[in-house]
Amino acid sequence: MTDLSRPALPGALPDKRQVAASFSRAAGSYDSVAALQRAVGVSLLEQLPEDLQPSCWVDLGSGTGHFSRVLAERYASGNGVAVDIAEGMLRHARGVQGGARYHVAGDAERLPLRNASVDLLFSSLAVQWCSQFASVLGEARRVLRPGGVLAFSSLCVGTLDELRASWQAVDGMVHVNRFRRFEDYQQLCAASGLETLSLQRRAHVLHYPDVRSLTHELKALGAHNLNPGRPSGLTGRARMQGLLQAYEAFRQAEGLPATYQVVYGVMRKPLL
Ligand SMILES: C[S@@+](CC[C@H](N)C(=O)[O-])C[C@H]1O[C@@H](n2cnc3c(N)ncnc32)[C@H](O)[C@@H]1O
Fold first, then answer.
1. Which residues make Cβ contacts (< 8 Å) with residue 45, sequence separation at least 6?
2. Half-sphere exposure in the Cβ direction for 244 (13 Å, CA)
3. What is the three-class DSSP state of 240?
4. Any bridge partners for residue 118, and if so which?
5. What pLDDT sits at residue 6?
6. Position in ligand 1 atom list of the atom nearest CA 37
7. Residue 141: which H helix or E strand, with range?
8. Ligand 1 pocket test target in 85, 94, 143 with most atoms within 8 Å of CB
């Protein structure tokens, strides 16, 4: 992810091949550490319009296919398509019973789907990896049928700030993925040509016994730092000690907090 809280930084866009490779590598471990991702996806499902009966739904950034299986159960008479940029994730999802009928490799910013062919585009915690959220919205508008719904969750500025601040105290380098501002989501949604049914930000705070549990989890999710400009190589013992010490300043009774600022959006393509 690149720094989306500031104007475009052409030299620092995320390398999608790296994003895909990182998630492909994480396909086997992802489900065991995805508690927050599960909670966010469930919350997004609860926000879908009740009267929705899609004959074609798409799980965009489907990962291991957990929510494709939930959508397939919920909309049993519809056809489901799982789209992900990571082939390893798609292979994993294909190997599990139930879920989407079709599994397609593709990029949320250039969807391999026909115009006006989709009734529900569901995307949980994937589009924070897209440098141009406007392109995702443009693609949603193109592939949705009139009246079709885009439901997305994403992450915004404020996410993993404790880790960011702790690294900052150690060496001032970019160790944590960067996120778009919530206000940018508001602006881009307002300019998208889709009707915003709801757009909100909610903080989810997880607690860890120690910093290593958090960083191991990020790696197992495939969501560790992929920023251009990230430090390469192993973290030296002294710097790691510095990090552990700095993070201790945030300790609460439940453990070390890691805050995720989650954006939830539900949008509808106008009928005309
Ligand atoms: C954090 S996982 C979420 C998976 C699933 N939606 C869930 O909630 O469990 C993010 C997924 O988005 C995919 N992804 C990242 N960038 C993408 C892009 N530009 N287009 C499509 N999928 C993308 C990743 O490969 C990964 O499988």
1. 67, 70, 74, 122
2. 12
3. helix
4. 144
5. 43
6. 8
7. helix 133-143
8. 85
Ligand 1 centroid, distance to 148 Cα (angstroms): 21
Q: Are strands 56-60 and 118-124 parallel, antiparallel or unpaired?
A: parallel
Rounded distance from Cα 223 to ligand 1 centre (Å): 10
pLDDT digits (tens, 9 = 90+) for 168-225: 888 877 778 889 999 999 999 999 999 999 999 999 999 999 999 999 999 899 877 6
**Residue written as tokens 């390893």?**
88
- Entry pTM: 0.92
Judge if the beta carbon of residue 260 lies within 6 A of ligand 1.
Answer: no
> From the CA of 169, how far away is ligand 1's center (Å)?
31
Token reading at 42: 């469930």
Q: How far apart are CA 71 and CA 100, in angstroms?
A: 8
b/e per residue 43-52 (b: at least 16 CB within 10 A): ebeeebeeeb
**How long, in residues, is the chain?**
272
Mean pLDDT of all residues belonging to the chain:
91
Q: Quick one: 29 exposed, middle or buried, by C-beta within 10 A (0-12, 13-18, 19+)?
A: middle
CA of 44 to the centre of ligand 1 (A): 15
Our answer on whether the CB atom of 67 is closer than 6 Å to any ligand 1 atom is: yes
Say whether pLDDT at 162 is over 50. Answer: yes
pLDDT digits (tens, 9 = 90+) for 218-261: 989 987 766 666 665 556 788 889 999 999 999 999 999 999 99
